[in-house]
Amino acid sequence: MKKTKKQKVLKSLLYIVLIAYAIITFYPFLWAVAASFKPLSEITSGSMSLISKHFTTEQYQYLFSAKSGSMFVTWFINSMIVSVIGTAINVFLNTMAGYSLARLSFPGRKQFYYGILAMMMVPAQVLLIPNYLIVKNLGMLDTFWALILPAAINIGNIFMMRQFFLSFPKDVEEAARIDGLSRVGTFFRIVMPLAKPSIATQAVFVFMGFWNNFLAPMLYMHTPSKFTLTLGLQVLQSADQGGQMWNRVMAASILTIIPIIILYILFNGYFLQGVRMDGEK
Amino acid sequence: MIQGYGFLAPALLIILIFFVLSILFAVYLSFNNVDLIAHTYTWNNFKNWTNLLTDKQLIRALQNTSFFALIVVPVQTFIALVIAYILANKSIQGKKVFRLVYFLPTLTSSAALTMIFMFLFNLNGPVNGVLQSLHWISQPINFINDTHWTLKIIMVMNIWSTVPYFMTIYLASLVDLPDSMYEAAEIDGANVIDKLRFITIPYLRPITTFVLLTGIIGTFQMFDQAYIFSGGTGGPANSTLTVSLLIFQYAFGTNNQMGYAAVLAILLAVIIFIVTRIAEKLNGGNGIR
């Protein structure tokens, strides 16, 4: 088909919309990055240029130096610990539960399945207060367990893993059993490795959930040295009430985003797969 | 059989404690006066429930939350749909780059995003700078502390950060839309807008139901941004007070009324349930199958 003039105009119009939207998305980040390399005086003078007149990395040095009393590195490590351990447990339990619901037969399986699904409808707010009281009574306030344990499963992911195992070829498992592997052995040595793409998909999202969570750390953590990054950011922001250290807050915000961006680039395909599965629910 | 229970047990334990027990606990709390320090729960004759009727704060929070959802949900759905429609066009180059850029806000925590927006919109921030240099305003606007603006800034931020996620969902299902449908429409003389109206939108209706429901649930539960923007107060003058924030204040703030907070939480759950049902019906879908 030969392109008419009208089509060409239309196509450039589409590009204009796409590029305009890309700028709207990207510019706030650029501004944040730019601000993190500026001295405070330049920010408060209302300069909106992306290039600093007095380029400086002093805020990054501040955040990373032990002498400054900055707890940024501690918060970063806390976030890492909680997110990595939390994700590992969460993904593991979801996979086992999904496998059990799809593959193993036991009385009440159907009832358990529908019962678990029904829990998906319960909004977070209803659970918030009782969860807090339970965590408190278990003596887990101000420990990382408070962040990990209530979030140790993800019902949506149990559902997803069940769907995955339903369509998983049975003969692979049977072959392994004939070779003498027990059910548990088969699960760890055969099933889990073969389910890797599915597991990676959920791991990426679960990790993001832990890393970006704000409410739970705020509720459960009281000692500043046990804060996670999201909570730490808020501390940084509200620390200097008089003149806010926007450059410092921006530097910390950027550093908070970077691990997730790296994760996104590494697992780009999994991200889109995960979204796709959600969309087809 | 034992293996079946064994594999399910850990997940089930978490669900029993943090979901099932929690729901029962929440209902129980809603009928009690809770004193956390003395560790007592005393039955108070539905007083938590009757308090609902006279709570002016609650009315304000409901107004803010509904206004927020009423604007944010349709706008984000519409923008996501249009951008996905354009990106799904086969002849567009550089889709991967666009997607990567668009996805940035979705990756970023609401805490970090809120920081960035508070910086952009602060009194000496770049947004005021741009508006002033364009001579659209003569005095900088105090976006973060002006009752007229604060909630609207949070709305802008929310739309901006959720559009890419919903766009990706739309894109994922647009892949399955057969080209022949567009081609047939073109032969009948349909232009771009016609194709969007008569083919894409009806085709995506089930996905739109999903997007609307997720959007409604998300907006009605909005907490992080309002909390960070206002430092937890819901200010200035209650202009950013959302229902979730109010629940938090009653339960964990100085108000210290956990029983009443539980009532509010149940109320919010019921509201979300009703609103999503209405949205589902309005969209003409049968829900998610």
Can you walk through the features of this model?
The complex is a heterodimer of chains A (281) and B (289). Chain A folds into two domains: 2-58; 72-273, MetI-like (MetI-like fold), CATH 1.10.3720. Chain A is 73% helix and 0% strand. Chain A has 15 helices and no strands. Chain A has helices at residues 5-36, 40-44, 58-64, 72-103, 109-119, 124-137, 144-148, 155-166, 170-178, 183-194, 196-212, 215-220, 229-239, 246-266, 268-279. The radius of gyration of chain A is 24 Å and the shape is globular. In chain B, helix 5 (110-120) packs across helix 11 (224-230) and helix 7 packs antiparallel against helix 10. At the A-B interface, helix 1, helix 4, helix 5, helix 6 and helix 10 of A face helix 1, helix 3, helix 4, helix 5 and helix 6 of B.
Radius of gyration of chain A: 24 Å
Number of helices of chain B: 13
Poorly predicted ranges of chain A: none
Content of β-strand of chain A: under 5%
User: What oligomeric assembly is this protein in?
Assistant: heterodimer
Rg estimate of chain B, integer Å = 23 Å
Distance between the termini of chain B: 30 Å
Strand content of chain B: under 5%
Strand order of the largest sheet of chain B: 1-2
**Amino-to-carboxy terminus distance of chain A:** 38 Å
* Structural class category of chain A: mainly alpha
**What is the typical, i.e. mean, pLDDT of chain A?**
87
* Tally of strands of chain A: 0
Sketch the major β-sheet of chain A: none
Family (chain A): Belongs to the binding-protein-dependent transport system permease family.
InterPro entries (chain A): MetI-like, MetI-like_sf
Main location (chain A): membrane
Subcellular location (chain A): Cell membrane
Characteristics:
heterodimer; A: 281 residues; mainly alpha; 2 domains; globular; B: 289 residues
